[in-house]
Amino acid sequence: MTDDRDDPESRLARIERLLEDSGRDVVPAWRQVTRGETRWAVSAVILVAVAVQLMLPHRLAFQPYWLLPTLELVLMVGLFIANPRRIEPGTRWLRWPSLALTGVITLANGWAAVRLVAGLVRGTEGMDAGPLLLTGGGIWLTNVIVFALWYWEWDRGGPLERAMGHRRYADFLFVQMQSPETAPADWEPAFLDYFYLSFTNSTAFSPTDVMPLSRWAKMLMLGQSSVSLVTVVLVVARAVNILR
User: Fold this and answer.
1) Terminal Cα distance for the chain, rounded
2) For the range 173-177, what are the long-range contacts, defined as Cβ-Cβ under 8 Å and sequence gap of 24 or more?
3) In b/e form, how buried is each residue of 77-113, taking b as 16+ CB within 10 angstroms?
4) S-S: 41 plus which of 76, 154, 179, 191, CB 3.0-4.6 Å?
């Protein structure tokens, strides 16, 4: 009896099926239902932001100076206790506390930035170059963290929506999306990717290798670049004048 596997027609059929399978579109991981992202990286940078806020001059902080950092810690600890591992469908209700936490950090850093800029314009801030540079650097770093959190919270509906694969169109176009052959098959954007986006936008004052696609993403990046530019220019200019 002749084995079907050795039959030329059977082999040709198998080859045709393989060619058809290889020609089918492969849905990338960032558009599939995947495991939720962990909170470790997010929690770590939030702790950095809280530490920086507490080290800033108390006169720049929202009074009492400990109020907003304490609220941030309470929200962060609550989120971590409620969901210590991964952001999964059962934790959908945690999105609002997470957004509230990002909003509080934004308020605290925005308040300090406005107070610093106003003081520099009036000449009441920046008597010593060293402390001024440290203060400006702390506000700048917190600004990077703040916008990284907003990008992470809103791109394609947030981390939970991304894990569920509900949104087809991305708000930010990463290199791995354009050239999937440069990344593992299971690649999808995580918080550190958004942190990198925020850092490069604050240093280059423009997109680098991550392109904003939606209008809100472009406006948010524009706002971040503006805040970073004003802070850096005023702080550095004042420090240079002091050193002279």
Assistant:
1) 97
2) 173/210, 173/211, 173/212, 173/213, 174/209, 174/210, 175/209, 175/210, 176/30, 177/28, 177/30
3) eebeeebeeebeeebeebbeebeebbebbbebbbbbb
4) 191
- Model pLDDT for residues 188-226, shown as the tens digit of each residue: 999 999 999 999 999 988 888 899 999 999 999 999 999
Cis link prior to 64 (omega < 30° from 0)?
yes
- pTM value is 0.85
**pLDDT digit string, tens, across residues 43-65:** 999 999 999 999 999 999 999 99
